[in-house]
TrEMBL record:
Superkingdom, taxonomy of origin: Bacteria
Protein name: Uncharacterized protein
Length: 179
């Protein structure tokens, strides 16, 4: 948490709002929460502080969402974010779902077999992330599924650097991605 909060200089009023957020983060760390989740939550605090929009209730909501996430799920969030950003920046033409299709294809290619061994495991991983409300599952005409970010995902990405979560080394040293 020190790294994420290093530049922050909270005012006394902000410090009062920060106290329950930092206490919750510390409790989660003592209870053995995954390092990747703790880093994202520290970034949420830093992001709220930077935007001068401290909200212990919003932080608690993200804490509930991110707590218990496996290493692979944290990497998946970051990889999905990166793939979506790349697709939005690309010139994909007029198709309505071009960003969604391109992002999902790129995401799948980055995840299998680097993070998960096969597409069935990827589907299971994505199903877990839709449960959090961060991603929305969209059925395709051929009976498959694609995913798109929810407004909750976008807000989280405004506060915390989700792209850095795509780096396996950033979320856990020496652990398998499927742990």
């Amino acid at each position: 948490m020190d790294e994420e909060m290093r530049a922050a200089q909270p005012t006394p009023e902000q410090a009062e709002q920060l106290a329950p957020m930092i206490a919750m983060h510390a409790r989660m760390a003592m209870e053995g929460e995954a390092e990747g989740s703790l880093r994202l939550l520290a970034r949420v605090i830093a992001g709220q502080l930077e935007q001068d929009d401290l909200s212990p209730a919003e932080f608690a909501s993200y804490a509930r969402i991110l707590s218990g996430m496996r290493h692979a799920e944290i990497i998946a969030l970051g990889t999905f974010y990166r793939s979506w950003q790349e697709a939005e920046k690309a010139d994909l033409g007029p198709k309505e779902d071009a960003v969604e299709r391109t992002a999902n294809m790129a995401y799948s290619g980055k995840m299998v077999p680097n993070v998960v061994p096969n597409y069935g495991e990827l589907k299971a991983l994505m199903s877990g992330l839709t449960r959090t409300g961060l991603l929305i599952e969209v059925p395709t005409v051929d009976g498959g599924n694609r995913y798109q970010p929810s407004s909750l995902f976008h807000r989280l990405s405004e506060l915390a650097s989700l792209e850095s979560a795509a780096e396996p080394a950033a979320t856990a040293q020496g652990k398998s991605a499927v742990d």
